[in-house]
Amino acid sequence: MRDSGEGAVSSRAVRAVIILAGALIVSLAIGLYVYHYLHKPTEVSARQTGPHRASLVLGTTPAAGSVAGSKSWVSYMVRQHGQWGHTTVFKVPAHSLVHVTIYNFDGASGLRNPFLSQVQGTVGGAMRVNGKATDVINPDHASHTFTVPQLGISVPLFGVPGKAPNQCAEMPCSLKKTHETMTFTFRTGAPGRFRWQCFVPCAAGFIDGFAGPMQTIGYMDGFLHVV
Ligand SMILES: [Cu+2]
């Protein structure tokens, strides 16, 4: 009888250790996920161009290529010192004018909601497409959008025509390759961390074009860190 009693105690002890170890592994995994969510990809600062002025140069590509590591999906990129970097977390100064240039190397996927083909929330309510001012594009010609819902900012990106020569399919893309250039300026307010994302269902190969890169930070989503 004494033997079986000891056996029950030790099996309970083994179970407790297994449960504790399991709980530890799960909480470690959750911790790592949260850390990764908050800290990856690396934050890149907009370039200070004057008092309360900064500039940010971005790019959009059909495939992030080797710069992105394992997942060469459709992606936003950042350009610094003539080099492409793979991040979508941008630090910009508060109460400032931020001038944004986006070089789009990607073709059009088209918007499902034509409302988003309008430029909203920028200085003058407009942008420039290859130097020409406009406040709207044909929704079928939209390649991506740069939208910050909480700040009321949304800019559609004009897509490279399908038959255009000299296209760049994968980053790093030289500016000599065919692209469309969008420029606009927006004004930042108080500090905060604001989510931004693309609203064009541009994730080719995924259901409804809305999965994969469309819901992954570092590709078609990111944060605007106003400091
Ligand atoms: Cu997109």
Question: Secondary-structure blueprint of this entry?
Answer:
Layout: H1 2-39, E1 43-45, E2 47-50, E3 53-61, E4 75-80, E5 83-85, E6 89-92, E7 97-104, E8 127-129, E9 132-134, E10 142-148, E11 153-158, E12 180-187, E13 192-197, E14 221-226
Parallel strand pairs: 1-6, 3-7, 6-14
Antiparallel strand pairs: 2-3, 3-4, 4-5, 7-12, 8-9, 8-12, 10-11, 13-14
The site of copper (II) ion has 5 residues, from loops.
Distance between the termini: 70 Å
Percent helix: 10-25%
Strand content: 25-35%
Instruction: Provide the list of bound ligands, each named once.
Output: copper (II) ion
Number of helices: 1
String of helices and strands: HEEEEEEEEEEEEEE
Please describe the biggest sheet, giving its number of strands, its sense, and whether it closes into a barrel: 8 strands, mixed
Globally, the shape reads elongated
How does the helix and strand content classify structurally?
alpha+beta
Give the integer mean of the pLDDT values. 93
Low-confidence stretches: none
Round the Cα radius of gyration to an integer and report it.
23 Å
